[in-house]
Design goal:
This protein has 2 domains: 81 residues, Arc Repressor Mutant, subunit A (Orthogonal Bundle), CATH 1.10.10; 43 residues, no CATH class. The protein is globular, with a radius of gyration of 17 Å. 30% of the residues lie in helices and 19% in strands. It is of the alpha+beta class. The chain has a 3-stranded antiparallel sheet. It has a 3-stranded mixed sheet with strand order 5-4-6, with no helix packed on it. Strand 2 and strand 3 form a beta hairpin. Helix 1 packs across helix 2 and helix 3 packs across helix 4.
Length: 150
Amino acid sequence: MTDQKTNTGADFSRTDPAALEDRIRSAALRPTRQRLALAELLFSNGNRHLTAEKLHSEVLHSGVKISLATIYNNLHQFTAAGLLREVVVDSSKSYFDTNVTPHHHFFHEDEGRLQDIESSELTVLGIPNLPAGTAISSIDVIVRLSKQSS
């Protein structure tokens, strides 16, 4: 089990801007100024779980001007390109995970925080028979946690 930062997945913490640009190009995306600024914030600190609003706050703090709508659009484009993974914790809250390797999550409800669970630490048993003509493409588990009452 790891906290928000791990050393797996799309970790660009030791890369330069040219490497970020190459990674964006290799995902068939054009490396615009805004995409490069977002990639720098997303990938330069190891693996993270961020909402679009949290990333927008970091963007504003860094002095870059990017609208929240543009951030959402780019996060979804990064996700479709395989650079990010979207983790939906409920119908109104999504996190974007820079760790795109297979893994699961703890969701700390009181803190609004995701924590990685390595896939080797969790076994899913009792999967029902699948409908004809289907196969499992992935299993995503979110274990919801709340603080214990004293």
